[in-house]
Write a structure and sequence with these properties.
One of its GO terms (cellular component) is plasma membrane. This is APC family permease. InterPro entries: AA/rel_permease1, APC_superfamily. The longest helix is centred in the N-terminal third of the chain and has 41 residues, at 105-145. Helix content is 67%, strand content 1%. The protein has a two-stranded antiparallel ribbon with strand order 1-2. It is globular, with a radius of gyration of 24 Å. The chain has a single domain (31-550), classed as Amino acid/polyamine transporter I (Up-down Bundle). It is mainly α. It has helices at residues 3-10, 31-42, 45-58, 64-89, 94-103, 105-145, 149-157, 161-179, 183-209, 216-224, 228-238, 248-263, 283-308, 311-322, 357-364, 368-402, 421-438, 443-447, 450-467, 482-506, 515-540; strands at residues 337-338, 344-345.
Length: 558
């Protein structure tokens, strides 16, 4: 056999043959799988992280439940728009197709590129946060609440940059392996995972609902010693914590950030629209049902936390943690702190500082079996969130490869697993870069704003849907009302613009909002334009007109 023939067998005509020849996606996503993917993608881990762990310390006294409701109201319009995109296009990455076919190919690709890179950075951010904060906090939580000293030692050992890289990479690698399984296996994992996650959340709601009001201080002191609760409060106030009034625009900005950061994943199944086995019209009702479930659990959890724990203590724990005070290992108080008896203390701060929902749940009901059960569920939810993001983002790379914006091998689908292996691998590599950076200078983590990337990445696709919503529909196909689509799109456009601009106007710093976060976004966007231009010149030298691919309409799944 000649060398050229052998090469042809391994990589057949990389720039001339359709990428889908090696294998095709299968229609494996039914109505309930859409719901499972949406709930698994949210995980409700990040949905309550900002409102419970960060927001109280930045804005002491703010009504967390109201902010959650504002965020959900905004996300209702954003998600309805995203789900409608999936219904109208009927193939993976509908935002990319709307932007490139209706507006302009280079701009449409640059916005899609920004969305994908932002999602890849988010995967890395989640993995690094899991390794740097969540896993050590879980071990510390169990060790302190249950009095297991070995777990406290284990938590301290995790605070090592090299260990963090290993754990973060392990989480990403586990999600990658789960993402290249057969569609049937993925469907089972997602379904069971989403179901178990909901069960865990119901347990947490039950824990808080069964506790009387104004008893949390007693429970905290019972575990960490008399007066511990008051020491935390007094220290925070003496370090400068104070309640402040928020204007309505600030509340809206905060709500939109929390909505996009916590609940946008409910729209991720839309990026897999090419693999639906249910009718495309069912995307909207399935998504709405998932939003109702996730919204109820999230709002109920936050409302019960506010009912059980005073706003002062929620704010104090968050405020102290944001200042780098953890209470671990016997932290010496930086100044004399008032004690409940009217005296003062300059000794050791009693009790760990962990402004995290699982910690509060452990304090109100320190049952060992329940705590270990919830710990396993929390770890599992992180893996599922990363897996759903990986699968969704890989479909964008597949769409790019079909249009020759990526080499053919990027979009190759495994003939038996029906997964775009190389696309998943590229998403994995983006996430790993963030994990490595987090263990070093952490520049990306300090300036990365997921809500900003999502809002910016959707601007052009939403504008394209308003301009020509029926571009991908054939004559006679069922279509939603143009007035309804334009209303949805117009409202969503206003929400996205507000989510981008208001945090800068009012300096809403629950996520990084500064010049460098804008620079990071601009670098990613411009790099997308550069890639498009470079790819077009590369193909032109080989006699291929890249722009010709954007004159074709994508095939629909159904």
């Amino acid at each position: 056999m000649k060398l050229s023939e052998l090469t042809e067998l391994i990589a057949p005509q990389a720039e001339t043959r359709p990428a889908s020849k090696a294998g095709r996606f299968t229609n494996w996503i039914g109505f309930w799988t859409v719901i499972g993917l949406a709930l698994a993608g949210v995980g409700l881990v990040q949905a309550v992280w900002l409102p419970v762990s960060v927001l109280p310390g930045v804005y002491p006294g703010i009504n967390l439940t109201n902010v959650m409701l504002i965020g959900l109201a905004g996300m209702l319009f954003v998600l309805l728009t995203v789900w409608t995109m999936g219904r109208l296009v009927g193939r993976e990455a509908p935002d990319y197709y709307f932007g490139t076919r209706v507006i302009h190919p280079p701009l449409g690709f640059a916005f899609s590129w920004t969305f994908l890179i932002g999602g890849g950075l988010f995967i890395g951010f989640l993995a690094s946060m899991f390794a740097r904060l969540i896993l050590p906090d879980l071990a510390n939580l169990l060790g302190n609440v249950l009095g297991i000293y070995d777990l406290q030692v284990f938590a301290a050992a995790l605070n090592n940059p090299q260990v963090m890289v290993y754990i973060g990479s392990g989480l990403i690698f586990t999600a990658f392996i789960l993402s290249i399984l057969s569609p049937r296996a993925i469907r089972s994992i997602i379904g069971w995972g989403a179901g178990i996650s909901i069960a865990g959340w119901l347990v947490i709601l039950g824990q808080f609902a069964s506790v009387p009001q104004n008893r949390f201080s007693e429970m905290f002191d019972r575990i960490f010693g008399a007066g511990s609760h008051s020491l935390h409060l007094n220290l925070a106030f003496q370090l400068g914590m104070k309640a402040q009034g928020e204007t309505l625009p600030e509340m809206i900005a905060i709500g939109f950030i929390i909505g996009l950061s916590g609940f946008f994943a409910l729209g991720l199944p839309v990026w897999m629209s090419g693999e639906l086995r249910t009718d495309r019209r069912n995307i909207v009702p399935a998504g709405l049902l998932a939003l109702i479930v996730a919204g109820f659990l999230g709002v109920a959890a936050v409302a019960l936390v506010e009912r059980t724990i005073s706003w002062q203590f929620l704010a104090a724990e968050s405020f102290l943690r944001l200042k780098g005070i953890t209470g671990e290992g016997g932290v010496v108080l930086p100044m004399p702190v008032s004690t409940p008896g009217g005296g003062s203390s300059t000794g050791v701060l009693r009790g760990i500082i962990m402004p995290w929902l699982p910690f509060y749940a452990a304090v109100v009901q320190p049952n060992p079996f329940v705590l270990f059960f919830l710990t396993v569920i929390w770890v599992m939810m992180f893996v599922l969130v990363v897996q759903v993001y990986m699968i969704s983002l890989s479909r964008i790379l597949k769409a790019w490869a079909d249009d020759r914006l990526m080499p053919e091998w990027v979009g190759l689908v495994h003939a038996r697993q029906h997964s775009p292996l190389f696309a998943l691998l590229l998403v994995t590599m983006i996430a790993l870069l963030v994990v490595i950076d987090a263990a070093q200078a952490n520049w990306i983590g300090n300036h990365y704003n997921f809500a900003l990337f999502v809002a910016f990445g959707l601007l052009l696709p939403v504008l394209a849907m308003i301009k020509n919503p029926y571009h991908f529909l054939a004559e006679g196909e069922d279509r939603p009302s143009r007035g309804w689509v334009c209303f949805l799109g117009g409202t969503t456009l206003l929400i996205l613009i507000a989510a981008i601009s208001l945090p800068y106007v009012f300096q809403v710093n629950i996520l990084p909002v500064d010049g460098q976060s804008a620079v990071l976004l601009a670098i990613v966007f411009v790099s997308g334009l550069i890639w498009f231009i470079g790819r077009r010149l590369y193909l032109k030298q080989r006699g291929i007109d890249l722009m010709a691919f954007f004159k074709k309409l994508p095939e629909k799944s159904q």
